[in-house]
Amino acid sequence: MKNSFLFAMAMSGMLFFSCNEKKEEKDMAQVETVETTDFDYNVEQFDDIKILRYQIPGWEQLTLKEQKLVYYLTQAGLAGRDIIWDQNYRFNLTIRKALENVYNTYEGDKTTEDWKNFEIYLKRVWFSGGIHHHYSNAKMKPDFSSDYLKQLLTDTNTQLEGEAFDVLFNDKDSKKVNQAKRVDNVAESAVNFYGPNVTNKDVENFYGNKKSPDPKKPLSYGLNSKLVKEDGTLKELVYKSGGLYGSAIDKIVEWLEKAEGVAENQAQGDALGLLIKYYKTGDLQTWDDYNVAWTKATEGNIDYINSFIEVYNDPLGYKGSFETIVQLKDFDMSEKMAVVSENAQWFEDNSPLMEEHKKKNVVGVTYKVVNVAGEAGDSSPSTPIGVNLPNANWIRAAVGSKSVSLGNIIDAYNNAGSTGRLKEFVNDEEELELEEKYGQLADKLHTALHEVIGHASGQLNPGVGETKETLKNYASTLEEGRADLVGLYYLYNPKLQELGLVDDWKKVGMAAYDGYIRNGLMTQLIRLNLGDDVEEAHMRNRQWVSAWVFEKGKADNVIEKITRDGKTYYNINDYDKLHDLFGQLLRETQRIKSEGDYAAVENLVETYGVKVDQDLHKEILERNKQFTAAPYSGFVNPMLVPKMNDDGEIESFSVEQPKDFAEQMLYYSKNYSNLPAMN
User: Fold this and answer.
1) Of 217, 280, 269, nearest to 246 (Cα)?
2) Strand, coil or helix: what is 104?
3) How far apart are CA 574 and CA 200, in angstroms?
4) In 393, 473, 492, 646, which residue has its Cα 20 to 30 A from 639's Cα atom?
5) What's the CA gap between 173 and 188, in Å, rounded?
6) pLDDT tens sequence across 431-467
7) What is the CA radius of gyration of the chain?
8) In 10 A of CB 127, how many CB atoms?
């Protein structure tokens, strides 16, 4: 699972987590920081998006063999880049190829507002991996007319017609993922995991009838396939060599086989071999075998994430989106943060959960700070800042999990500059000083606690099905909120100081609480259009957590809503009582998950996490107009360029930075277009 806490906290003052929230990023309300190097982290800004770049600390310390491993793994990820485009929407590749041809070949007037709007729209499409906003899931409408696009297509001899053209301007397929209450979420979602005539009931019945050979080790049915209906019969199109996305998967396999040949050790090589076998066969038992081997392969300086993994883009939580992250170990920070995973059992034993919901033996939670060397698929350009995998509950319980914090991504956010947004939304100088002094540390610790302790904590009651089956469309937001609550509960605890992680646990905790409430109740609303409900899973969880504790603490005035000069602020009056409320809500969310209580999670999310106070939202948007920084950030990737000797063998690499966003996107499309326009 990805941690987008950085994104959430990014709005708080602020870092944010994706557990792939999906994927999250740095909040634009982040306190100002000063660059400590001459490296320029900023690339460009357009619409609501800022493009950054990152460095790869530790690259020069790797051996040539290790550098080859990193290179092969990044190439494997890029080879599958087109997959996420097609998964996001059935016409995305058709549209992208047409728009890129226009961009590359148009020789007309490029000074007009229409052309500038065309360029911005194409960049937004690149950033989101399709025509739906990467975060809100709403279809992005062009700021140019259909007639103008028709003229561009004619002038460049480009074909884009029928539904693929019309959908850019009409109201069809308006939501990539529709999580609304009591609608047919599958039928109303444009995401391409299901055929156009497949319904919620079809999906639930189809996978409900699947029985794993070992009920204690349930297979991830549906993870690597598209479910379609042909002549009234449901069938799966499996992602594999010779199957759906086979041409891209074959390229992935080629690069993974090269990576296997330069593996750092036997365990790492064995895991890569199983991943290759999985791609070739699509067999879900092999997927589980791979995840067990990958989880156990903890030695070495290089690690990676690669395949169909996170299910946030599926309204029912079955289908995995393609993604890759390739990473180098950050030796110094990993050693400092390892203390969190070493004390995982203490955190579990001392949590406010019901005794029957606590794990008696938290095993194999490994936590590292890593530096990203390359990303693709659902992790790029918009990236998480923390990841905890594998997602299968039984593997977590029996074998453990790996948790990583993407250190150089966080550093890039911190050094990319910021705005005065924080000062606009804090209640007073004390809150500002706490954020400036302790906010970044609080964010890093929340990331660690969310990923290492949060997702590893708790257990299902005997006989209760997987969360995606019991909690359905609320599974993702419940799990992310539960992990957030674990982090919040322990951020305000002297144990952190006892472990040497902080110098003043109380002030770190206060800064964390201020930021979370500020973001959950106010600043994340700048990401929504006025009148919209909250739909994205991580935004929902931050709102329902914050709104629940606000309401439950009203009698004791735990959190006070203040209006001053026509502006709204939230002030925490009693951090001890807020800590207790976070504990109560954590206990309840774990009960919901452990018991599979759908009625309770529906009530929790719909009551506190979906609807927005429209007057407050209007106010927040007005207050935010003074700031020019975009609310969303993402990255271009460094280019690893091999240098060859006379025998055609790699003898070294150079690390080169793309000059702008368009250059990298066009390079990727030219060199890694491994799927046809329609699949």
Assistant:
1) 280
2) helix
3) 44
4) 646
5) 8
6) 999 999 999 899 889 988 998 899 889 999 999 998 9
7) 24
8) 23
